[in-house]
Design brief:
Chain lengths: 513, 312, 271
């Protein structure tokens, strides 16, 4: 029998291959302090796989990873602070005058002047698809370190847009090469591709705190399981976006530290006003009452969330004080009876004129919390006698476009610009394309109109709270919870913390000991 | 021979045409397009911006206009640009292909490495411990989703034994670990197929006749039986190779392997038509070429088959 | 010898049937609903009350796995049998006949064969919506051509066999020849391929479920149970491995059944 020989050859070949495997597993050559950072939020699918802030959503990467900075930035309470700017002045409703810092240089050593900022913003308007529609800039004039901007519409939240990552200031004369832009941040990119970024210390950094690390490597790890394993293997110093399910593995382990911060990413369910049953406020209210948000957050999100009352977290100045109804199953059943759902069928679902109350709950799976919310709502509403058909599909946009849903649950950042106006205008105002619930209330609309014409910040915040309360009173949207963003890092990492607006990750303070 | 190959290659045209047309049609049957997906993704933008983007990408045109435009471009050697990244499709595809090729060829090789000897043993020693082992492998390999096996491997090799590094770029990394789950799933199928093919062939009368003539068993096996089963085996292999080279989105995602499988699935999710179309061309070309290669090799290995006969 | 084989087949069929019956009666046997949530009992390990533990919603995994047998097995069987039926019929025709129609059908099969399942599934879900039925339809659409190729390759050489020519000359109709003479020759490989495919189909539905294109919640479908709990693999491994084991056992049963059937119908294969 030559069987032994038959087997020997493959085994030998296998050995050769596995040895080849051993040889190549070497970490990149480290010089000085190197920080390895894994994130779920970077990649071509997120449209941010570049540091060119003017290209789609790549500005998020520019600002997040410390390559570029904006004229204004948000503090931990989402208040606006000057960053590359020194101050600003609202000349009239249409004109704003910005004084720039005098000591800022780009990573190539060039000074950031009014002319350079103007050129950068002009390039933004020319190349970005959203900026021209957001900023509505009419004319810009630069004079030394002063920049005067005129808009063709009243823009009370103009400064907020200048804190949006796409407004990161780069040296446009230097151009963009291989997705690398020249910014003013503490680090500069040397390699940018679909897999991640390689950053090195910006020796010319202008800020008072100088970058402490020599190199930062950002890895795009879009899979939650892989991200967990990569952190557990000890190869990464910090990760962002770990699934909740994995956090216990790090909580128990003394070698790691977990920090979290509430964000304005809310899990909300918009009631479709085109659905006859949902036009009755008692039905909408019953739905809001029958889902126990506390249980959802504490058990299904494992405490990694913040129970939501309105569209903004309590920690934001325009989110404070909105009151939502508490969980009350009996009241929900009573409301359904009042609404005419007096009988129950064999399966225990309430009926009106012999028709059971069935609702199509549309959601998607790319945010891990949404399918959890959907299944939880399905079971909760069943107790109230409402039948829910869950349609959790990453094809949800097709259904949205066709209107084939009664409740649309989504995760949405309600204050991406640190201002409440944006959310109300896009999701609540009558007739807007992203108002998925087709909610239309003259009261809310009038309040939003007033908000759009109010420049005083405190008054804006007060109005925002009023609109938020109005939506909750109308039971137009069910706000379940806010995302608490967690970052996990090794114990020796300092200066790394999640920020409520999700823009700032790699900062000059970041260090490894 | 040359004429035959030329004729077979001509078949590529209707297949590529059909595949790209159907995929284009299917993607357009979905109600949403790239612009809807992109703008909905980041909490929406206003309608004017979306309309401008749609016009810029040519999505405001009719279906046939879009397809003809695309076809015209391709016939001029231009695969267009990705709707999402605005990078040329051809460079994007070419930058990801080597990684997939490397991974998949190794997976194919490993599959044959395990399934050929083990499948043979299972067939000639029917009912033995080898046969049972082959069965067990084929049950588990067939039933377990690849992500599960991949994650278990990663847990041991990366977390426990530090044998695999997440930080090494794809190009410098050994494809052995990511190839294992793919090979495992394929081995499960091949073990069964090889065993069945061999059993079938061994039961034929000519084998008994040869043995009766006093030829040694292994001689009959290597000189007659293996040759006879080569043709169906190669046909099978051609099919798997073609589908393997399309990449595996799940394995590529889990092992951070920068290949075309993930590229394609992302493109489908984002409705990035130019990338999807390029991927479809790649898939259909692979399919035709591998089948052609299998037929040619078969004709050499098994003289009973002639190319002419298989032509239709 | 034959009676031994018959016993084995009966045993395997019995086991499969028993599983399906248990699946239908799961709720009554176990006193746990596979669908009712008890959040206070979420992610508990195997215990005396919950033999196989609970999932993230506090549902009993044994109840869910048993209830899932129905949906999972029937869907996978339907896809496998339907693809085999459609594919084999076209394959029989293509192998026996020649001409323009055959070429067209073969090209069509080629087109579908080189088509990735995902493209199809997304398009189907986009037009018809997600759900088990549509996922099954999408998988069937890309699975059948495999059988066409298989059957055609088996039938082509038979066309020139003497007994077929004899049948042709003695006035049998094409249908009679195809189904009485040729079909029995090819049914074995088709069955074996289908049994092999069963596992693949279950895992493919699982993959689609993961994208939200498969079974809709709260349906207890093994594949989607596995993919939706894969994040708990380290903290609550039973949520993944229980449905996984169910799939392995099922696939094993069907493959053993396919083997036995093959041995039973084709005794000459015994060595």
């Amino acid at each position: 029998m030559k069987l032994k020989q038959l087997l020997a050859l493959p085994v030998a070949l296998l050995l050769v291959f596995s040895l080849n495997g051993c040889g190549t597993v070497t970490a990149p050559a480290a010089t000085g302090k190197v920080f390895h950072y894994g994130t779920m939020a970077y990649g071509p699918a997120m449209q941010n796989a570049s540091t060119d802030p003017h290209d789609t959503y790549c500005g998020w990467s520019t600002v997040r990873y410390g390559v570029g900075e904006t004229l204004f930035k948000f503090d931990d309470q989402m208040g606006l602070r000057p960053w590359l700017a020194r101050s600003y002045e609202q000349v009239d409703d249409y004109t704003i005058k910005i004084k720039l810092r005098d000591d800022v240089v780009f990573s190539n050593g060039k000074k950031m002047t009014g002319e350079a900022v103007k050129a950068c913003l002009e390039d933004l308007l020319a190349r970005n698809d959203r900026a021209p529609h957001d900023l509505k800039i009419d004319a810009m004039t630069a004079d030394g370190q002063t920049l005067t901007i005129r808009s063709h519409e009243k823009m009370p939240d103009f400064i907020n847009y200048l804190a949006d990552p796409y407004s990161a200031i780069i040296d446009v004369d230097a151009g963009i090469h291989d997705r690398i832009a020249i910014g003013t941040g503490p680090y500069k990119a040397v390699r940018v591709d679909d897999q991640g970024l390689h950053l090195v210390k910006n020796e010319n950094y202008w800020g008072p705190v100088k970058p402490k690390l020599d190199e930062v490597l950002v890895y795009s790890i879009p899979d939650g399981n892989t991200l967990t394993l990569a952190m557990q293997s000890g190869e990464l110093d910090a990760v962002q976006g770990l699934p909740y399910a994995s956090l216990p593995a790090f909580e128990k382990n003394g070698a790691y530290r977990i920090l979290s911060s509430p964000t304005s990413r809310v899990y909300q369910a918009a009631m479709n006003y085109d659905t006859p049953a949902l036009q009755d406020q008692r039905v909408r209210q019953a739905i809001c009452l029958a889902i126990d948000k506390d249980n959802f957050v504490s058990v299904l999100l494992r405490g990694n969330g913040l129970v939501a009352a309105g569209p903004f977290p309590d920690t934001f100045p325009f989110g404070q004080g909105v009151q939502g109804p508490a969980y009350d199953l009996e009241r929900a059943k009573e409301l359904l009876r009042e609404a005419g759902y007096t009988h129950t069928d064999r399966d225990g679902y309430v009926t009106k004129d012999g028709q059971p109350l069935t609702l199509r709950w549309l959601t998607y799976t790319s945010r891990q919390e949404l399918p959890l919310l959907a299944e939880y709502a399905q079971a909760s509403l069943k107790k109230a006698g409402i039948k829910v058909d869950v349609n959790a599909t990453d094809n949800y946009k097709d259904f949205l476009k066709r209107g084939a849903y009664d409740i649309y649950a989504q995760a949405i950042v309600t204050a991406p610009t640190g201002d409440p106006g944006y959310y109300f205008m896009s999701k609540i105002y009558s007739g807007q394309p992203y108002n998925n619930g087709h909610y239309s209330s003259p009261v809310s609309d009038a309040l939003i109109d007033r908000l759009n014409n109010t420049f005083d910040r405190q008054e804006r915040f007060r109005l925002a709270r009023e609109i938020g309360q109005q939506i909750v009173n109308d039971d137009a949207v069910f706000y379940a919870s806010f995302l608490k963003m967690s970052v996990v890092m090794k114990k020796n990492v300092t200066g790394f913390a999640p920020h409520p607006c999700d823009y700032y990750e790699i900062t000059p303070e970041l260090d490894i000991h | 021979m040359g004429k035959y190959i030329g004729r077979r290659l001509l078949q590529l045209i209707p297949i590529v045409f059909g595949v790209t047309f159907i995929s284009f049609l299917l993607m357009h049957l979905a109600v949403t397009d790239t612009v809807d997906v992109l703008y909905e993704q980041q909490s929406g933008a206003n309608a004017a911006a979306a309309a401008a983007k749609r016009a810029a990408l040519g999505l405001d045109q009719g279906f046939f206009t879009q397809y003809c435009h695309w076809l015209w471009q391709v016939l001029h050697g231009d695969m267009g640009q990705s709707f999402v990244t605005s990078l040329p499709v051809s460079t994007t595809m070419l930058s990801k292909l080597p990684a997939t090729l490397e991974l998949m060829l190794l997976a194919l090789f490993l599959t044959l490495l395990i399934s050929l000897p083990l499948g043979t043993l299972a067939a000639i020693r029917k009912g033995s411990i080898w046969d049972q082992l082959a069965r067990l492998l084929s049950f588990t390999g067939n039933a377990l989703p690849d992500f599960l096996f991949a994650l278990i491997l990663l847990y041991f090799f990366a977390v426990k034994w530090h044998f695999f590094s997440f930080l090494t770029p794809t190009a410098d990394r050994s494809p052995l670990l990511p190839a294992l789950p793919l090979a495992f799933a394929m081995t499960a199928k091949y073990l069964r197929q090889i065993r069945a093919l061999l059993l079938d062939e061994l039961s034929k009368e000519y084998v008994q006749a040869l043995l009766c003539r006093g030829l040694p068993y292994h001689y009959v096996l290597t000189h007659y039986v293996f040759r006879a089963v080569a043709a169906p085996l190669l046909a099978l292999l051609a099919l798997s190779a073609a589908s393997l080279l399309g990449g595996s989105a799940i394995v590529e995602t889990i092992f951070l392997w920068d290949g075309v499988g993930k590229l394609a699935v992302d493109a489908i999710m984002l409705r990035d038509y130019p990338i999807i179309q390029a991927y479809m061309i790649w898939m259909s070309a692979l399919y035709v070429l591998f089948n052609l290669a299998a037929d040619i090799i078969c004709a050499y290995v098994d003289p009973r088959l002639t190319l002419r006969k298989k032509e239709d | 010898m034959a009676s031994h084989k018959r016993k084995k087949i009966t045993l395997l069929l019995g086991l499969i049937l028993l599983g399906l019956i248990a699946s239908c009666l799961a709720e009554y046997i176990l006193h746990y609903s596979p669908y009712e949530q008890h959040l206070s009992l979420a992610l508990q390990g195997p215990s005396f009350q919950h033999w196989l533990g609970t999932d993230v919603y506090g549902r009993d995994l044994l109840a869910r796995t048993l209830a899932g047998a129905k949906l999972t097995i029937i869907t996978a069987l339907a896809v496998a049998l339907l693809s085999a039926l459609i594919g084999s019929c076209i394959g029989l025709f293509c192998g026996y006949r020649q001409g323009k129609a055959v070429t067209c059908l073969l090209r069509l099969a080629d087109i579908f064969l080189s088509f990735p399942t995902m493209v199809f599934a997304i398009a189907v879900a986009g037009i018809l919506g997600g759900g088990t039925f549509n996922a099954a339809a999408a998988i069937t659409a890309v699975t059948w051509p495999k059988y066409t190729r298989l059957v055609r390759n088996l039938v082509s050489p038979l066309r020139r066999e003497y007994y077929i020519e004899a049948a042709q000359m003695s006035g049998f109709t094409t249908g009679q020849i195809l189904f009485q003479q040729i079909l029995p020759e090819v049914i074995g490989p088709v069955f074996i391929t289908a049994a092999l495919d069963l596992g693949t189909i279950i895992t493919e539905i699982a993959g689609l479920s993961f994208l939200g294109l498969g079974a809709a919640p709260p349906a207890a479908e093994w594949g989607s149970m596995m993919s939706s709990s894969r994040l708990y693999m380290q903290t609550a491994p039973w949520t993944v491995f229980v449905p996984g084991a169910a799939i392995v056992i099922t696939v094993a049963l069907f493959q053993l059944l396919a083997d036995s059937l093959r041995d039973f119908f084709d005794t000459k294969l015994v060595r």
